[in-house]
Amino acid sequence: MRRALIACCLAGLALHPALAQVYTGVSPEGSIILSGNEDETAGILLIEAEKLAVVPLPQVPLAAAAETFLAKVPAGYLAFIQEASAVYQIPSELIHAVILVESNYNPRATSPKGAQGLMQLMPATAKRFGNSNRLDPRQNILTGSKYLRWLLDFFGEDLELTIAAYNAGEGAVMQAGRKIPKFAETERYVPKVLSIYNKAKQLT
User: Fold this and answer.
1) Helix (H) / strand (E) containing 24
2) For the chain, what is the largest distance between any 2 Cα atoms, rounded to a whole number of angstroms?
3) Which of 13, 63, 168, 177 could cross-link 186 (Cys pair, CB 3.0–4.6 Å)?
4) Quick check: helix, strand or coil at residue 181?
């Protein structure tokens, strides 16, 4: 009977990786004892195996794990950004960076020059790319992203020139010899957008 019980116990142990030596014995009451440590009641060695090496799990910084750029996007606009990213094949992080610099996610933002909405569309740009309501968040994001896609194609995927043109217009970039125009606002705008974009990419 004891042999049968021991066999059952060993069969159960076989289902799990052996981490060390397993000892057996019989208690004063007659019960079978299985233990990972040798002592007076479990002194018979049943299984001998090398301990498995403990492999430490990689340590992920909490900030990188929890604070992605998506966490900075207001929930109501996240779906629109993802939609625009998929439709126009541009990084969602770039759309996020432009919105953050242009309006800080204020859907009713209006500039002194007449730009409106999340991505600060000028009337001519909105009309050019088929926008009928610049203050509608979805339309604004899709139109601004469509313009970004056009600029990326026009400037051969050059991100700096694309961002500069989004701020100053593609005509100004061309007049500057396909370089960032010497406008104080544009010279501040480009590195600011790029910084946010690059930080967002690192967190995804």
Assistant:
1) strand 22-26
2) 97
3) 168
4) coil
30: left (phi over 0), alpha (psi -120 to 50) or beta: left
Q: Give 126-165 pLDDT, tens digit per residue.
A: 999 999 999 999 999 999 999 999 999 999 999 999 999 9
Q: How many residues does the chain have?
A: 204
CATH topology for 62-202 is Lysozyme (1.10.530)
CB 118 within 8 A of CB 103: yes
CB 179 within 8 A of CB 173: yes
Q: Where are the domains of the chain?
A: 2-47, 62-202
Q: Is 128 exposed, middle or buried (0-12, 13-18, 19+ CB in 10 A)?
A: middle
Using only C-alpha atoms, the chain has a radius of gyration, in whole angstroms, of 32
- The predicted-structure confidence for 45-97, as pLDDT tens digits, reads as follows 555 554 444 444 344 343 333 346 667 788 889 999 999 999 999 999 999 99
46, 24 in Cβ contact below 8 A? yes
